[in-house]
TrEMBL record:
Domain RCK N-terminal: 151-274
A single BP term in Gene Ontology: potassium ion transport
One of the Pfam families matching this protein, by short name: Ion_trans_2
Gene3D superfamilies from the UniProt entry: 1.10.287.70, NAD(P)-binding Rossmann-like Domain (3.40.50.720)
Transmembrane as UniProt keyword: yes
Transmembrane segments: 49-67, 79-96, 108-128
Classification of source organism: Bacteria, Bacillati, Actinomycetota, Actinomycetes, Micrococcales
Membrane topology, record value: Multi-pass membrane protein
Name of protein: Potassium transporter
Subcellular location: Cell membrane
SUPFAM superfamilies (alphabetical): NAD(P)-binding Rossmann-fold domains (SSF51735), Voltage-gated potassium channels (SSF81324)
Keyword annotations of the record: Membrane, Transmembrane, Transmembrane helix
Length: 579
């Protein structure tokens, strides 16, 4: 029987005819709508410009046809010159003495051009205030900002709580992104959020292929799409667009219902995150495999988060669920699947009877009501296990003050999973591996990390042994031995180990989890390490400096200059020959 604790991480298709194979897609160019604001200006200003040109033309040729004082005529060029500086209110004066008919015609021309200018300027001002024109200008500006991105980037659809958290962490990791949200106020927050990079944003419907095209879906440096809107239909449409137009790109999506989740899997979504279902899985994990839950939740938390003491509560028994919506359905389903006795009560009908209950879940749509129910549950039974659903992160301080046993914040859960998959996908493979191991393996891994790194959540990094990322180490391991333990030595004192633990060693596409530190490294290896703040930076000399590599491998103090190294090695060879 499939372990129910693992289903919430990668729920497979529930179809009965077996594993679905991706269909071959017809290559269709990504649609990009026109963003030419100049065309809109010319179209709206066509009539005013025609009127203005007509007035100028009549004025010029009329002045050229009227005879002067000696019966001669002003040349068309002189007439054009005079009408130009007169109609534009510059006014240099008459180029030759005019007759009364010429002055009368010039007077009429002045009033006529004033009317023409007023009509043209009024139309232009009206155009500048037109919503369609401003939208066209904003769209064109957005498109240009997207095209100026030269680095790989992600398209993030939805800039709510989850979207903002994901974008902030992506920006902190040095990754570029483009944001789409239907709410203009959310997009405007991009300019006020303290992001390091310039993040293009547009308020538009992300479900439209043209909008995704504007955001760069068809560009070669687009490396993936993240759909985090609050609307399941929009997220499903984003998954469909990516799978049909750019099937080689990964797409990660959020959803609230199992039906939508299944439909997203039909379109080959790389990951579908149903936060209510995920939390139910985490809760079961905490109940039935507490050490594994302790390890996974701690490693997935923010860097520097203290490791909390594990409570030895007994979770089996009667659970009272005072919740509504999709969250109620998912949590009741998960608890029932785990063999727990589940009783649902309507949160709007007052406090439930908690006598003899093992756990209580406050999951209404109101944060205030959830906190009130949680406090009441603690007053009735101080030992009851309390779970609170938190919608808004603005009330996080209140939740911490109540010392809740388990807090379900959908935006945080979605953001943490997305970031784990996108920023360090190798780490996510480690999490999936940890979920498949027993409690003894989790206890050993947890203790190993604590002994080396302390009780604060470690920082993570992926070390790639190649000439681009670790040139000195790569040249060394091409011909000489260098173990994983040597990589973790302090460059200043090889007898002291850095506060770093290797989590995964990837070699030729095969991952070794919690690898033996005596394993010899090879070119092309990737090592996922977790370490204390600052320890990962201290490992950098071993990757880049020849002297640090040799010291870590052999213990010899090598001169820093090239000449010194040559002399030292020559002396070493002479000493070996003599001996």
């Amino acid at each position: 029987m499939t372990n129910p604790l693992l289903l919430f991480f990668a729920r497979p298709s529930t179809r009965q005819h077996g594993v679905r194979r991706p269909r071959e897609r017809v290559r269709v160019p990504t649609e990009v709508p026109s963003t030419d604001a100049i065309f809109l200006v010319l179209r709206r200003m066509r009539t005013p410009l025609v009127v203005l040109v007509a007035i100028f033309s009549i004025s010029v040729f009329g002045l050229a046809l009227i005879p002067g004082q000696d019966g001669t005529h002003v040349s068309p060029f002189d007439a054009f010159y005079f009408i130009s500086y007169t109609a534009t209110t510059i006014g240099f004066g008459e180029i030759v003495p005019f007759t009364a008919p010429q002055r009368l015609w010039v007077t009429l021309s002045i009033y006529g051009t004033v009317v023409g200018w007023a009509y043209a300027i009024g139309t232009l001002l009206s155009l500048l205030q037109d919503a369609a024109f401003r939208e066209a200008v904003a769209t064109q500006t957005f498109r240009r900002r997207v095209l100026r991105i030269r680095e790989p980037f992600f398209i993030v659809a939805g800039y709510g709580q989850s979207g903002r958290a994901v974008c902030a962490e992506l920006d902190e990791a040095g990754r570029r992104m483009v944001v789409i949200d239907s709410d203009k106020d959310r997009v405007d927050k991009l300019s006020s959020d303290q992001l390091n990079a310039d993040v293009p944003g547009i308020d538009a419907d992300a479900s439209l292929p043209g909008v995704l095209g504007l955001a760069g879906l068809g560009l070669p440096n687009c490396e993936g799409v993240i759909a985090l809107t609050d609307d399941d239909v929009v997220n499903l449409a984003v998954v469909m667009c990516v799978d049909l137009l750019r099937p080689e790109l990964p797409v990660l999506a959020r959803c609230h219902s199992r039906v939508t989740e299944e439909r997203m899997h039909d379109f080959s979504a790389a990951a579908v995150i149903n936060p209510s279902d995920r939390f139910g899985g985490y809760l079961l994990l905490a109940m039935q495999r507490p050490t594994t839950f302790h390890l996974v939740s701690w490693l997935m938390s923010s860097t520097g988060t203290p490791l909390q003491a594990r409570r030895e509560d007994k979770h089996d028994g009667r659970w009272i669920v005072s919740a509504e919506g999709h969250f109620r359905e998912e949590i009741c389903h998960d608890l029932s699947r785990a063999g727990q006795e589940v009783e649902w009560v309507d949160p709007r009908e007052g406090y439930p009877d908690l006598a003899g209950a093992t756990g209580f879940i406050a999951g209404s749509d109101s944060d205030t009501l959830n906190l009130a129910m949680a406090e009441h549950a603690r007053l009735v039974d101080p030992e009851i296990f309390v779970v609170v659903r938190q919608h808004s992160i603005e009330r996080r301080a209140l939740v911490r003050a109540l010392d809740i046993d388990s807090v379900y914040t959908p935006s945080d859960l979605v953001a943490s999973e997305v970031l784990a998959r996108v920023v360090t996908p190798t780490f996510w493979h480690f999490v999936e591996h940890a979920l498949g191991q027993d409690e003894e393996w989790a206890a050993v891994a947890l203790q190993r990390i604590i002994d080396r790194c302390g009780r604060k959540a470690p920082e993570r990094d992926l070390v790639t042994i190649d000439l681009r990322n670790a040139p000195a180490l790569t040249r060394w391991v091409q011909s000489r031995d260098f173990s994983l333990r040597d990589l973790l030595r302090d460059p200043e004192d090889r007898n002291r180990m850095l506060a770093i633990v290797p989590l995964v060693l990837v070699r030729d596409g095969v991952a070794q989890h919690m690898p033996d530190e005596d394993t010899l490294l090879r070119p092309g290896d990737q090592v996922l390490v977790a370490g204390r703040l600052g320890a990962l930076a201290a490992m950098t000399p071993v990757l880049l400096q020849e002297t640090a590599v040799e010291h870590a491998a052999t213990g010899r103090d090598v001169p820093a200059t090239w000449v010194g190294r040559v002399v030292t090695r020559a002396a070493e060879r002479r000493r070996i020959r003599r001996s």
